[in-house]
Amino acid sequence: MERWERSHGIVGVNAPSWLTFEVHRPYFDGAQAPTTVLQARAVPVAAHRFEQRRPDALRFGMTMPASYRQLLVEESRLTAYRVADPTELPDELASPSWRRLAQAYRERADLDPVDRTGLAHWLVAACLHRAVLEVAPTDLDEAHCRDRVRAGLQVARAVALFAAEGLSERTVAAYRPLVEQPAPTVTHVLAVAGWGYLLARHAGDDAAIGLHLGRARELLAAVADELSPFEHGVLTARLALREVMYAERQRDFAGAAALLRATAAQVADLAAPPDDPDDAAVLLETRRRLVDRRLEIAVRLEDEAGEREALAEGVALDPWCVKIRMQAAQVHERRGEHEQALAGYLHAARLGPFGTAFALLRGAHCARATGQREFARVLTERAFRAAPRSGLTRDSLLTACQEDGDEPLAAVVRRAARRDPQRPHATNWHYQMYASYFNLGASRSPGLYAQLPTLAYEFAEAGARPEVNWQRLMPPAFRRNLIRESGLAEFAVSHPAELPAALRTPAWEQLCAWVADFAGADVEHQHRVAVVLYRLGFTRLVLELLPRVPADRLTGAAELRLQHWLDTVRYVDSVGRVVAAPTNSFAIAEHPACPVRLRFTIAVFAVVFHARETRSLEEADGWRKVAEECLAELLADPRYTPFEKMMMESRHFRSVSYVPFLRRDRALLAADMTRAEELARAVPAEGAYQDFLKRENLRACLESRSKEAYAFGEDEAGHRLVTEALAIDPYEPKTHIEVAESLLKRDRPGEAAASYLRTARLGPVSTALGYAAAADCFARAGQPVLAEDCYLQALRLDPHAISVARGWAALGAGGAMGELAEGYLADLEAWGAARRAARAH
């Protein structure tokens, strides 16, 4: 399962990390995969030329800019492959050829001219341009450059300088000894033609372009007798491509088209030497480059037949190329074929990284044109996350937010778009939304639960314990998912003290001090600090710091409260595995020193536990009676405020309603939930904190009531309650799931998909679930293009999701990547079967 081993636990920005790795693998580790894009095969070809000591043999003509490697790492988030020279890649990640070239780089000072030049060409192909300048640190003079091997080293230096600096003074100086008095060699043919190409593309004055291209033709004619028909044909085609660029600059598109037709016909007759796969790859790249220019010229000439022909040939030659997919999408968009254009842009975006954000933005435009408004919003957000420093993605997302009346998230976009070189994490989208969970920073999400760790910290700092607390227990995986989806791996620590100093806030420093002094703190302070740690997602640390103490060894109320809370944490952490029954809590409720308020809390918790886990009506009913007795005593106690009493009573009736639910006693269930809802609406909240608790309680109550209505077939009432819950917190992913399920009950899968997409983009609580469910809905609604995108997004987040892989494969021809989907599913099923077999033995 190499595709997962290479990217385990890593979430790419837009495409699955494993897919980006496979498509562009040579740049990462020097090896090649079946799905590797054509341009990336330049790396293994250059490695073979080095091993064969043939630095003057034909290589690929295309080279990528220095930013390409950076984009690959940023979008895939495979940060282990972020290297500036080949020796920085760990051996366990490198292919054999990469390791061989890395060793050559270490020994570069002792290499002869042949190996030094071959190494430099490989570094250029691998986009390690700064390392080229270590191999060729200074310019050679014209005399040395008359030797074709040494000239090849100077070419590598010139190409690397241009890739890193553009047409800088150093780049011009590096080309000068190659082009002013060129020798009649293949190396100089390519150098002179390449210089003419750069001038055609990037220089302001084109006076010398024709001169350089003509000189390259003369040099090629001078060495023609030394070349094989294959070599001469490829070099002639490359010169023609340079001349086409010049013709385009002169706006002679008809002349460019004629030259391309003639050159394509000539190349069609070429055949690579049958015993040289590298030459075959070079020929394939030559044909692909000709197709690229033919397509661009056909567009300029509005030649639709030429467009179609070039597109078909380009896709057949290089099906994993982001550029040809983008060009195909643009053709459809120009014709007003928005659905086909959307499919093309989505395909291009997942093949990135060049143009990922642009493809997503164009896809969003096409999605809006086809009525897929929410899908368009999702694509726009993904474009912003792929290129957060782009003004275009920022403005597009701001416009989308404003069109939806979503000013709170527009404010997050504005903040996330600001550059902060000293604190780059601070402008990460997920950090802006949920900074409290990362390092007790200021969360900007307008959702109810974005600030829970900070609330816990503020109570701990004040030395206070709230009599009424919030109810939401974030899933144990929340912090892990948040960090994975954000890409901020530096926050993935298991202890607060492990967080680097540069990432800490003053509140985090205080938390570290509390944890360091934890053993010597009193029980109340330990409880408060442990709550902060738990809210931050450090559940395992909490369980290590606080050993379980049996109820019969406890004395005061503080110890009893702490051990019940610890029992609750242990239970929540075990959900989905072997359940850790809160038996200590049940014993604490019987403890003679247990306060009435704590006994009430435990009794209500016990009802819910038994209803969900043991399904024991007898146990649930018994604890309900205990809760009722405690509630009566609490409501009669003048020490509690009206706010506290009404909150306790509302929560009581919502929780104990599990008993009539188990009995299927519709009348009592309705009475319990009606009372809970009446109290939730009537709570007299004062101040921001009480208002937060009231809103949270009412939202939870409405959610429970909707489940009650659906359980008894009262769908319309359920729909109404879900809509009201959504109005209280439109940024809560769980509520959008409820909305989607409500729509599915009315057989409206297309609308349900939109709600699941909102769940996904408001994650990370349910990002993968939202995408997977949206994919199923789109498939059901007859939208395979949208379904495939959502399946891939779900696999980006959870590559082992077998149901998602099956859904993707089931699309068949309806998906653009049907063959890959089938192979992925087969691999995943085989992997799962092997694991099951291993466990059985």
Automatic annotation (TrEMBL):
Q: Which domain of life is it from?
A: Bacteria
Alphabetized InterPro entries for the sequence: TPR-like_helical_dom_sf, TPR_rpt
Q: What is this protein called?
A: Tetratricopeptide repeat protein
Q: Which organism is it from?
A: Kitasatospora nipponensis
